[in-house]
């Protein structure tokens, strides 16, 4: 019996984000188990969350963790921001709602690295389980699942121009980016229903919260795990100004995301021994991979155009069209993504070049980055932000892919399809190779997709095994985007939801 809650708990899930909400909802489907979900943030009830076009306004609000990167050594030591959702729904409550499952080779690659059960055919079943696709059910698309997914109903004319412009670079048009092929240009799949954000809260958690066996506590920030010997038995968290602890009979599931999960592990004594000792943290298990392998999709902010006709307001999420393609022949999948942003977008270092309004952006990104960074604790205090060294452009190959991506995107931007809109290319303009590399170093920013800090695998650097169990500790799993050994080449929300579905199945199966 847990004294503070007045009941015996079977499972505690920490973090009500994209994956955590799915795990909580699925586990509590069994009325015989007691489930607790702890979330550091508060409710998602806010008009800026509901209206899918307002997501940029949330990034500096109280509903986001306000992290920053360490100086980007290969990007002129600029500091980039790392906003993450801090409310029910986590990042799915403030993201751009694009639903992209990733390329089959992403998951087959995980399986080849030893992650059995994570190949494309395994994860496709889970994607179909989660989806309520606004179309016909098929072997590729799910209908009747919790999450509504649909293409934009009324795309902005600029999004249409982007899709049409792909002809000039020889990229095919796609009906459905989550269909038989991912490579091509088309309208994004969106988790927007009746004009409103359809997050994991709407899809999974809200109805589950009516169940008597699911307790959700918001404004409950976990400080550390309670570990006895080699078993995780509970959680210490701060709520209403006091530290409380709670225990679970079966398992604790850490779903606090790419920053939260490795931080909580390290504060609990699970991490690289030398780092923990330096901070005075008692080492429970030396796990050198915790916090390592940090990577993200580096994105250019941006290739900008002044528009010669009034653009009007962005439609849907303001990011309705997307393209995946290869920078060179012979790759197993796409290594470039480009997005059409129906608004101006530039890093602070270049923002003063932008017109104040009537400006659109083509934003290319490296979909399979080679650069790797790390995340380390700055202190043992859970209130202190960690050191987030995302290390964009550390690898020359990322620079080369980005050069190819920029060239493609500038050709698309200069095409006839954009002629009714294009007044001038604001930046970068025609530059030589050296100048373009300098532009990359000034304009590279996050696409908000960091992953990898609690890598799944079978080697010594793996933090969790293919069943998501934390190596060296019993009764503890990680289930969120931090477990990706390598980033998927699409946006990372759908994979996080899939990871939640897979974790729940593995836990129930035990
Ligand atoms: C601005 C933005 C736009 C994006 N746009 C898209 C998009 O359009 N499409 C897409 O596919 N992806 C997008 N992403 C990325 C995608 O949303 C994330 O990869 C995904 O949501 C990550 O899910 P997660 O479960 O790993 O973590 P999260 O969703 O981040 O959930 C982690 C949860 O844990 C909580 N937490 C953290 N620390 C603690 C603690 N100590 N105690 C208790 N709770 C804690 C957090 O508050 C949060 O609720 C975007 C991300 C951002 C930030």
Quick summary of this structure?
Helix content is 23%, strand content 22%. The chain is α/β, with parallel strands linked by helices and 510 residues long. Strand 8 and strand 9 form a beta hairpin.
What small molecules are bound in this structure? flavin-adenine dinucleotide
CATH topology: FAD/NAD(P)-binding domain
CATH superfamily: FAD/NAD(P)-binding domain
Q: How many strands appear in the DSSP assignment?
A: 26
Share of helix, binned: 10-25%
Q: Regarding CATH, which class?
A: Alpha Beta
Tell me the fraction of residues in β-strands, as a range: 15-25%
What characteristic shape results from the CA principal axes? globular
Low-pLDDT runs of 5+ residues are none
**First CA to last CA: what distance?**
23 Å
Q: Biggest sheet: strands, sense, closure?
A: 6 strands, antiparallel
Give the helix/strand class.
alpha/beta
Q: What is the CATH architecture term?
A: 3-Layer(bba) Sandwich
Radius of gyration from CA coordinates: 22 Å
- How many domains, in number, for the residues? 1
